[in-house]
Design a protein that fits this description.
single chain; about 140 residues; mainly alpha; about 0% strand
């Protein structure tokens, strides 16, 4: 993608994720009838976590670790991007695409174990988010 490195893509995903998280929290706080409950905390917390995971993916030297971290961040961002398609979804899908692109770039130099760990991270994140969303 545009010749960017995996680290640059991960940093881009982190910036978008954390920026959207900040805007989300500000918009919820500015609503007159807002009831910031557990769903708001779940969304804001997991978006912050995805941003931190993407940031860590950009900072880590190991291609395998970068791939796992970027995959986990990307899965989280795509999940919320699809669910929030009518509001904050589009920038989250862009961030998810950036994180996924960072994972793909990192896969070129990663071991097969890192690939299996990335799949486990994506599936684990997806299952945890679906369960958490259903319970809130």
């Amino acid at each position: 993608m545009l010749g960017l490195s995996a680290r640059a893509l991960a940093f881009g995903a982190a910036a978008v994720a954390l920026g959207v998280d900040l805007v989300y929290l500000l918009s919820v706080g500015l609503e007159d009838d807002a009831d910031p409950g557990t769903r708001v905390a779940l969304v804001a917390g997991t978006l912050a976590l995805a941003g931190v995971l993407a940031l860590a993916a950009g900072l880590v030297r190991s291609a395998g670790a970068r791939m796992v971290l970027a995959t986990a961040a990307g899965a989280t961002l795509v999940f919320w991007g699809v669910l929030g398609l009518t509001s904050i979804g589009i920038p989250l899908l862009v961030a998810g695409f950036l994180a996924a692109s960072a994972a793909v770039r990192s896969a070129e130099d990663a071991s097969p174990d890192a690939f299996r760990a990335s799949i486990a991270a994506a599936v684990g994140i997806a299952v945890a988010l679906v369960l958490a969303y259903a319970l809130t």
